[in-house]
Amino acid sequence: MSSNNAAAGGSHHGNVEILPSIEDLRAPAQGSAQSGYDDADIHLPERRFNDDSLRPMFETSPAYFKLVAGLSAVIAFGVGAFSIQLVYGMGVTGLHQPVFWGIYISTFVFWVGVSHSGTIVSSILRLSHANWRRPILRGAEAMTAFSLMVAGLFPLIHVGRQWRVYYMFPLPNQRGLWPNFVSPLMWDMMAISVYLTSALTFLYIGLLPDIAVARDRTTASGSWKRRYLRVMALGWRGSNREWAVYNRASTYIAVIILLIAPSVHTIVSWDFAMTMTPGWHTTIFGPYFVVGAIYSGVAGVVMLMILIRKIFNLGHIIRDLHFDCLGQLLLVIAIIWSYFYFCEFNVTWFSHKPEEMAVWDWQAERFPHMLWIMLGGSALAIALLGFRKIRTNLTAMLAISILINIGMYCERYLIVVPTLSHRDNPFKWTDYAPSFVELSVVAGSFCYFALLYAVFIKLFPIITMADVKEGVVISGDMRFGRHAVRVQVKE
């Protein structure tokens, strides 16, 4: 970075000098074409930026407490329903021979898919230096962690005899018993635990600079919020060495997560593809599940970012540009997912094996509404997301992303239930409908995710302030007081 007057107190990030606070900045000059921002996108209200970003932490309205109370009530109801299942056994569910996997496993696959939001939005865009990613990083990374926490509950809920769940873990004992490494339960436990550990580490490392800002903004020295922020900040002071370690660690973990995430949903797909069940035993399930996971994950990020922008009035930080870029990303993934679905159907139709075609016929006969929602929603998304006016219309984007996630949930249900209820043996054909207990537990899981997110917003900054400040600095000419500074990024 070359300048007329070097800014005092800054830290160094590669070849770009990072300022300790955006409040030292004044009105920016013309933007740089290489940054990916236009002029309107770098005009942040610098003096209010930290205050606006931290407002969700320090300002709480009565509506927040009502939301938490409502979510907690639904979660308590779901816990009560699960307690009934725990006492009376799996007979209170709608599961029966041969449908031993139902809405529980469908919801498990859905939540693991949503967890890929942080992977595509954070890791890939961070490594590709896409500047527009910055304000939405924290929301996507938190979404990954919380959806994994919810997903990890469903193998435990579904397994039955939860008091013996320790058999899933590789713990030696005096009888020499070990877990069954051929069991999908073992695969899921290993995959989720590794992915969740790396996702939480990635989230926490990215939080460190912003936790330090929140710590310094907390005025009451003896308050509980200042105490936990001081502990969580790990003594961060923004020195050159701390920034250097921070940037290296973020890059390394981004690469690690980029390798782990596809393997996690591939392992989930193996829960199905490794069986000899018609409709499941196919090699395309691995990449098909990964693309579907990224599809629902990005749609989930769009939903949450729209809600966060609207509720906390952050339109000057989470801008139309970000939804335009997310919409383009969603469009590309929608086309790829549709291609994989076409390939799966086309191969089955061309071979025309009776046991394979029976599964598709059963879906069209008994679940046409789900097929229409899944395929129609994807087709509508592809048709609409090609227009920038739609991508920058928050109401339209919210409706499209909700429709996509409903369709992807239907897709997971169609993978599980029709295949098991219409096996190759006609004497075992049956119907399945989730019981009140199952529906209560699933509703509780969605509210549990929402509650985790609501509590997180009150405990930690939801905007990645350090990354947004860096994006402003590398976006072109800046003014520090009365001095003009030319910022040059050298990759």
Summarize the structure in short.
By secondary structure, this protein is mainly alpha-helical.
Describe this structure as you would to a colleague.
- Residues 1-44 have low confidence and may be disordered.
- By secondary structure, the protein is mainly α.
- It has a single domain (11-485), classed as Formate dehydrogenase/DMSO reductase fold, CATH 1.20.1630.
- A hairpin with a 2-residue loop joins strand 3 and strand 4 (483-485).
- The strands form two sheets. Strands 1-2 form a two-stranded antiparallel ribbon. A two-stranded antiparallel ribbon has the order 3-4.
- It has helices at residues 49-58, 62-88, 103-114, 117-127, 137-151, 153-159, 184-217, 224-232, 240-273, 285-312, 320-351, 354-366, 368-384, 388-391, 394-421, 436-459, 465-473; strands spanning 11-13, 16-18, 478-480, 483-485.
What spatial form do the alpha-carbon principal axes imply?
A: globular
Strand content: under 5%
- Number of DSSP strands? 4
In the CATH hierarchy, what is the class? Mainly Alpha
Derived from helix and strand composition plus strand pairing, the structural class reads mainly alpha
Radius of gyration: 24 Å
User: Secondary-structure element sequence?
Assistant: EEHHHHHHHHHHHHHHHHHEE
Number of domains: 1
Give the termini distance in whole angstroms: 11 Å
Low-confidence stretches: 1-44
Instruction: Please state the second-level CATH architecture.
Output: Up-down Bundle
* Proportion in helices: 55-70%
Record the strand order, biggest sheet. 1-2
Write down the overall mean pLDDT.
79
